[in-house]
Amino acid sequence: MQASAAGGVEPQARAGFERRHRLVRWLQRGLRVLAFSAALLKAFHMSRAAHASPSPAADVVPQHAPEHARRARARDGGQTRAAEGTSTDRQLGVSGAAGSRAARRGPELASAVAHPAAASPARAAHTAVGVEADKQGVRLLAARLAEAFGGLSELLPPGTADALVLLAATALVVPILASLKLSPILGFLIAGCALGPNGLHLVRDVHTTEVLAELGVVFFLFEMGLELSIERLKALSRDAFGLGSTQFILTTLALAIGAEWAFRLPKAASLVIGASLALSSSAFVIQLLQERQELATRFGRASFGILLFQDIAVVPMLVLVPLLGTGGSGAALGTVLLTALLKAFAALSIIGGVGPIVLRRAYQGVTASKSQEAFVAITLLTVLSMSAFTKALGLSDTLGAFLAGVLLAESRYRYQIEADIAPFRGILFGLFFITIGYAIDLRHLAANWPQLCAMLVCLHVLKASLLVVLCKLGGLTSKASIRTGVLLSQAGEFAFVLFGLAQQHGVIDAQLAKLLLLCAALSMSATPFLADAGAHLAESWERRQRRLDADDSSNVLEPAHDSREGQVLVCGYGGVGTIVCDLLASMFVPYAACDIDPQVVAAAQERGLPVYFGDARRPDVLRAFGLLKSAKAVVIALDKPSECLRITKSLRRDYPDLPIFVKSTAASRRALLDVGAQSVVSGEMESALLIGAAVLKCTGKNEQEVISLIEEERSKVYAKSLAETLASVPVYGSKDKDKEEVVDVDIVWEQGKGPPEQPGAAPAAAAPAS
């Protein structure tokens, strides 16, 4: 039995050692070539630079020396560097030889693994020496890599080497994490930690990267503004100024008390720490919500509203921190705050009053020229000038970019602007996450890990607990409250600005500022894991609640716990119902949907959507919603026309003034209109879009904004339908090249028309009715 075990382990151990030895050998060869090339180029560059300016070293030939003497000194320097490189190569050769010996010792090590009792002390010593040699080889490889990149960075133009390093690291790390189904944000953080000043220091010009990263945040908030019109901001006012203000005040006080007790700080410093850590990361959270398509869910809207208020709250904090450092009086503090409020009011008035007129005329002139370059230029000018304007008034530059996006969200150019700005935002925003990774100092983390762990646990538990309670009191469901609280429990990017400002004005010392910055960076790095943890915790809570209510086995829908006036009731969550609900969520119109398919309901509730199990054909189920008397409209999107007709009759009899929108076929259109349907549309996809448009207009939404939204959704729907159709078509000759076959593809044109006729072609047959 032991022999068979040894026989199985020995080949595996030998193969592992051989693979590692081959990898080390190829790395050695590549790095030797790279280092030798860099050394030669650097020697040539230094020999040319010696003609222009003398070196500060003592052994450099003076400028007035003869030409041949300077050349001889440059040649000697090159030989010295070559000798140093040869010495390092010899060290690498020792490591490679150690790897070869380790490969030859494979059978012995495999036997030692299979028979640990029979392993002699000598073999154990040889194993330890081999492991230490491998570690030394890895360290030398890392040093040679840093030396090679350092030499290349001196030869290339300023910033070029940094750009190459960042792009290479991003292209390598992000796909690996994507294949592991992890957020790309973690890839940017890992790249920043490894390449920054606290890692290998391959990126030399850190300041330039940070400036570009700030532009990434500016473009990101501009894109967020494009998603929010004035009406959508009004819909978010309850979450922003209700939940957001309460969360910020209570969290600031709680964290300030904790900081004063833990660090023995004065009240001013504790207040700055509490207010800075009370902020959450808009960049991380909104990016994750967009990636997972959860921004339109209830907890997504609540999270966005809270983050919006926090961005506004940064403005007075930027004014207060310098005053706290100088010890200003209460009167001076009040004067500065009043001045800041007046500046904010003036900025909002100017942007809101003059901005739409100027932007409309500017874009009309640019689009008349039909120049794509000019259109991109005016968009970039709008973003940067608006952010510079608010920054000149002492406000946040990101606030100006956000307001610019809100103004352009009302224009007809919104979707073209969003497409043009996406490449800039993607690259620059990735740099922002890389700069966050710069702040992660692994050495400082190893030296202070108990204190940092305690700070992180206290921060996340305190913020999450307060937010869950406040969201529950604010009318959110338990599931949405848990997800919102856990998702917003991290620190934010503005903490870096506020801690740096506090250190600059003497509010906190440098050592504490470094510890707080590291805590904020680690907290932000945990955001993707917090999102997953919040979803699992909320789902566990939901399952527990379902087990408690398992005694009710009827299929009658229970009344919604978070129902409000003005909701839209959607009967049927199939193809049409899903599109209608997505359109309503995009415009922040509250809705509730029901469906009789439990799998459909479960999938929707996992995304946090207000979809419930219930049979819409039963009047008592519809009355269980408690919405019909105050509902803005009812959408009936069932498959069978007879069921739609029966539900319409029942609703019209009990609620004569209720708007009813029905999806049906052309044959039953007249009958539905006769029994009191507000609008009847036939066709599958197009009916969903038209019903959604009618419901949005019925709820008082702007007509131009509704048209723009429907056009965007139509493009998405037809692009998806076309992709599915093409994917189902087999490639001719892929299975049997000798067999000829003709593949017929039926495409249903949702408008009820066939494809446009080609010149000389026979007329197309009429498309069958849906």
From TrEMBL:
InterPro entries, A to Z: Cation/H_exchanger_TM, Na+/solute_symporter_sf, NAD(P)-bd_dom_sf, RCK_N
Chain ranges passing through the membrane: 240-263, 269-290, 302-325, 331-354, 374-393, 422-440, 452-473, 485-503, 515-538
Residue intervals of the Cation/H+ exchanger transmembrane domain: 169-528
Keywords: Antiport, Ion transport, Membrane, Potassium, Potassium transport, Transmembrane, Transmembrane helix, Transport
Keyword Transferase: no
Record's subcellular location: Membrane
Disordered: region residues: 52-100, 750-770
Topology relative to the membrane: Multi-pass membrane protein
Oxidoreductase among keywords: no
Any GO MF annotation of the entry: antiporter activity
Compositionally biased residues, Basic and acidic residues: 65-78
A GO CC annotation given for this chain: membrane
UniProt protein name: RCK N-terminal domain-containing protein
Pfam families reported in the protein's UniProt record: Na_H_Exchanger (PF00999), TrkA_N (PF02254)
A GO biological-process term: proton transmembrane transport
Principal location listed in the UniProt entry: membrane
